[in-house]
Specification:
This protein has about 190 residues and is an alpha+beta fold. It has a single domain, classed as 3-Layer(aba) Sandwich (Glutaredoxin), CATH 3.40.30.10. The chain is built from five helices and six strands. About 40% of the residues are buried.
Length: about 190
């Protein structure tokens, strides 16, 4: 009985996201049209990553999946020179498993996992209050591809279009993710 309710909620979320995006003007066509703020509160236009492959991941500091930070940094280190960037999006949406302040999040990530990839400010990643990038991704890929927990991953191609979504259980070094990533990096966009 819970599955139909959850499915209906996800569908309502996607429809609300599509409605909000269209009400704000023409719907964005690529990830490079979005702006967020860095973990330090500075502007972070995704346009600065134009032509790169992105892996946008909603993160949390107190989650069973938090050790994935290590694998995400390894991906960043391995593929950065090939035009790839991980973008971490801290969120407390799932079990409130994130620090309150950006400074606490940044200090934890750097000290514990030596994270050097870009991080945004703490953001909502689900539902109608989600950051615009996440509402767009929900509208583009559908309800079944939205974050269901921390460490959900969106792969964005060099052209700024969404390629795939990977659930929390898909680790950064999984063949599923690394296969899609190497294919995206090889594409000219």
């Amino acid at each position: 009985m819970r599955k139909p309710i959850a499915a209906a909620f996800k569908l309502a979320t996607v429809l609300a996201a599509a409605t909000m995006l269209s009400a704000a003007g023409p719907a964005p066509k690529t990830a490079f049209e979005f702006n967020m703020k860095t973990i330090d509160g500075k502007p972070m236009p995704f346009a600065q990553y134009k032509g790169k492959v992105l892996l946008v991941v909603n993160t949390a500091s107190f989650c069973g999946y938090t050790p994935q930070y290590q694998g995400l940094q390894a991906l960043q280190d391995s593929y950065k020179a090939k035009g790839f960037t991980v973008i971490g999006v801290p969120s407390g949406d799932f079990g409130d498993q994130e620090y309150k302040s950006g400074k606490e999040i940044k200090d934890f990530c750097e000290a514990t996992y030596r994270v050097k990839f870009p991080m945004t400010e703490k953001s909502v990643v689900k539902g109608p209050a989600a950051a615009p990038f996440y509402r767009w991704a929900a509208a583009e890929l559908g309800a079944d591809k939205t974050p269901g927990w921390n460490f959900h991953k969106y792969l964005v191609g060099r052209d700024g279009k969404l390629i795939a979504a990977f659930g929390s259980k898909v680790t950064p070094n999984s063949p599923e993710l690394t296969g899609a990533l190497t294919k995206a990096i090889a594409a000219s966009g």
